[in-house]
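Reopening: Putative 8-amino-7-oxononanoate synthase still failing for me.
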Amino acid sequence: MNPRLAQLHPYPFQRLAALLAGAEPPSELPHISLAMGEPKHPAPQLVKDALCANLAGLSGYPATQGTPALRQACADWAERRYGVALDPARQVLPVNGSREALFALTQCLIDASGGDKPVVISPNPFYQIYEGAALLAGAEPYYLNCEAARRFQPDWDSVPDTVWRRAQLVIVCSPGNPTGAVMGLADWDKLFALSDRYGFVIASDECYSEIYFDQPPLGGLSAARALGRGLDRLVMLTSLSKRSNVPGMRSGFVAGDAAILEKFLLYRTYHGSAMSLTVQAASIAAWNDEAHVESNRAAYAAKFAAVLPLLAPVLDVAMPDAGFYLWAKVPDGDDVGFARALFEQQHVTVLPGSYLARDAHGGNPGRGYIRIALVAEPAECLAAARRMAAFCRSRQPASSA
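Support: Ran it again with your exact input. Result attached.
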């Protein structure tokens, strides 16, 4: 067996299951899970129609590069969304969701054959695929703590020169999971300058980019355009899962540096990662339509508007920049104990923030927080918020007479 498998950590939901094992929540309260970031809104009818109309595609082997029509639809969407003109033949590559692509891209990029161990830099807290991909590629993960004092953004200036010199890949997540924070243009400018100096690739995970409440979040492609630079050493990854409520389709695309995508296509040809022609047809329908995305965005905004007034008086929590998570600070700092007790007393599941982070640079930046995924139907989210508010009030010390 690959000895690097032994370095992998249990997934957050494995740890959550172990935490809640043996708990006996009140049976009269139906279970509400706000732990997993799995979209629950209905899939768009136009996507279902496209799937059914193209079932003949199941009879053919798809090309790894995808059909020209799909690549063009992705490029057209990127131009509408980011104002960037992409070559659909060289700068766009369909993938089976951003998670699969993040892992595979890391395997493709990392060169562990030299004397110094390569480094993959990622935010902390983070999506655990970043870490697992780095470890299995033979790289050393370097965790950049994202804390409230810095708008939940990484502090690029805190990274030692010795680390930058070994860095081969920097993964950013904007809007962030779990914080919902969005990188500003100054953050991008600094990161691009570091990439120019040290030569690392930037992988920009933007799978939450279309769930926002005011202005569209700045992305890597639009930041490069605004700064008057090309797409050298930049790869953006996006997905239909959250945007279009079709996580089961496993459909997204990567875009950016043509030289990197040329090698990534070669890797994927051997990896066996081609997207079904049926799914490609449905993906074209999704990328070409914005009406369902606007409706989806409005549905999330309505849930935040209903839930936040109930939770803000009892938890340190605020509206995120984007995404569908609330990143809430618990009163006593014990996120694990809070999650266990909430489940035991109110039959509501949330994810301890410390499960999404690693101890680094003197602390775990997820400790003391919980991640609340507002993915369920509005009535469930509202019921969960009421139970959470009651739970928090029950833990408050009685005021002295």
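The mean pLDDT is 97. If you still see a failure, please send the error message rather than a screenshot.
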